[in-house]
Amino acid sequence: MAAKTGTYTLINSSTLGSAQSSVTFSSIPSTFTDLILVSSAVAASGGPSLRIRFNSDSGSNYSATILQGNGSAAASGKETNITSAYAGYAALNQTAGSTNSILHIMDYSNTTTYKTLLERSNNAADRTETSVNLWRSTNAITSIELAAGATFPSTNLSAGSTFKLYGIEAGNL
Length: 173
Hints:
Elements: E1 8-15, E2 22-25, E3 34-40, E4 42-43, E5 49-54, E6 62-69, E7 74-82, E8 85-89, E9 91-92, E10 100-106, E11 115-123, E12 127-135, E13 144-148, E14 162-168
């Protein structure tokens, strides 16, 4: 029997037909090792942050370290004891597709460790960034909610925003 290689399986996807305050992926199966969330989000107004919560947890159980650059300047920041993790950059009043974010949620179904999220986003007209986030919970992730704004949620996600959730299948060693 040949060794199995890791593959991506589409779990669910969503393209917004109208503005919404958030997008939720629920009933996430525990059959994968990691999750990948790919988004092209547009915020209708307010701050351009894309935020994420797991299992409807709105407690101060998240933290993030963020690095940004725009070609001429770089910045960094840290957020601790926050009520949602940082999930990327939602382009502010731009066309869908102008900003892309890729989130890697590692070991999401493990019930003995905290969950780590790596994010990278880009918008050629504005900036690129990366962040590492921690959800201080040992619960398996069964639902994901995304929203735009500095708080959760503070502005609508615009029509045309897209979200795709993939599972990474475990490979046999």
